[in-house]
User: What shape does this take?
Amino acid sequence: MSLLVVGSVAFDDVRTPFGEAKGVLGGSATYFSIAASFFTDVNLVAVVGDDFPDECVELFRDHRVNIEGLERRAGETFRWSGEYGFDLNATTLATHLNVFETFDPKIPESYRTCPYVFLANIDPVLQLRVLEQIEAPELVACDTMNFWIEGKPDELTDTLRHVDILAVNDSEARELGRQANIYQAAQAILAMGPSGLIIKRGEYGALMFNDGKVFAAPAYPLETVFDPTGAGDSFAGGFMGYLANVGNVTDDTIRQAIIMGSVMASFNVEAFSLDRLRGVTYEEIHDRFRAFRRLVHFEDLDPDDFVHFGLGS
Amino acid sequence: MSLLVVGSVAFDDVRTPFGEAKGVLGGSATYFSIAASFFTDVNLVAVVGDDFPDECVELFRDHRVNIEGLERRAGETFRWSGEYGFDLNATTLATHLNVFETFDPKIPESYRTCPYVFLANIDPVLQLRVLEQIEAPELVACDTMNFWIEGKPDELTDTLRHVDILAVNDSEARELGRQANIYQAAQAILAMGPSGLIIKRGEYGALMFNDGKVFAAPAYPLETVFDPTGAGDSFAGGFMGYLANVGNVTDDTIRQAIIMGSVMASFNVEAFSLDRLRGVTYEEIHDRFRAFRRLVHFEDLDPDDFVHFGLGS
Assistant: This one.
């Protein structure tokens, strides 16, 4: 199954406790599409300026990402600069939207029957406009953020009616669902339209609510977390890419997809930009998937070992 | 296997977004011993004032907790008052140590051969003094906090040399291990003596590091978290109680014990004080243990479903 992503392509200046990188390739659609490219055909929709160099285009080509929908406009590419402390929380130092400010995603004819769609974190009005250009998608997932939850709540509500799976972080879920309790916030969000909700919790992993069920996935406790930029988008890329690969969406495949998203995010944070993610091998992907299985595995209670102690019966 | 716990018995004034409770029974050794009492014989060492009423003693008796080591002294029982915001983080409003200020735990003769020992969060000097009174324990676990990590680092280091498993929270682990990265902090702590380290992460669950392995357990996403007081101590009680019940400490039983700790903590936070925990049934314990299994379960990759897409090989 092919996969469509609409989002940003950007240049980032990033400083972490372990070093810094200037003007490196980033953006939600970039991380998403490279992560997803290991699993399926990816069709990219984004905008860049006339400063966007061929070597960056090459990265997409090497990963067989379809860039027919990568619009090139006069002006500069979106630039973000940010800094991470030892707690790995980001502080945005500067955001220059540049050509991204007037981004009006046009979906190429050849993308319009794409069955799997991911709307990265952009204006919910644009997210809905993208969906209007697509014919009967099978699975639509989207990301959003506090900026839109607070600034365009009605537009976001409209968009969510057409979305199957929403991915947000803890605080966004609490704000959108208007509940401090994460379980109750999730139920409130599911009542808005999506049948599935992913709550991204950074170094604590992710929760998935769907169909009355909950799935909890840890993040992999890595020896080195070098640069968290793009973790959420490479998670989404692994998640959607895996579902498109197996081509069916059940509770079982959704759970595996959450783990595959966690696998791709765990590689991504090991280096700046896409330096680690781009060169990952299938052997590494399989190994880390299995490492996640060992990480959470525990045996059921054995009635021969565990005996009731006579209380609480 | 019988279990010894040394810690506090207290009266708490607690305010949460959902209500308040005044002068209710609390304290680390209380939560620990009631949680553990479902699994094994518990021997309690703590101190209370002459204000400690018979009905509180009855709770221990009902749960067959041995209170020979519950010292009663002239003066008032330890009192803590705190408040939880919507984020469920505690703000301490007042701490009156009272008789606990000069607590000098004396281990009754009949407790001294107890094979499983839990040292709740008290002065590391007292923790070590407790261990000196015990004959060849099989498993010693302990808790500590920033106050001792900062205030008595050398004494804490001495104590840790005699401890098998340390349980602390995220920020305590980072401070004690002097590393921002939690994996690296864990390795630094394990180099201080303990063979196992539990990192308690509240609503995000727990991590266990032991013998080169890592185990990640989620917290149960509860519909109602009413009062987080005692969650860490009821976790420890379920953990140590389970290990004492099955009577052997392996990677498998440690993982089950972490889940059993999470089960008991999840019940405890559903009501004020010990109101929920004290009346839990074995059926509820088994059901929630199984709910944890469903919460984290995912299938392995199926080579017939998941196909390599030609990259990354």
Remarks:
- Chain A touches chain B through 68 residues (CB under 8 Å).
- The two ends of chain A are 52 Å apart (CA to CA).
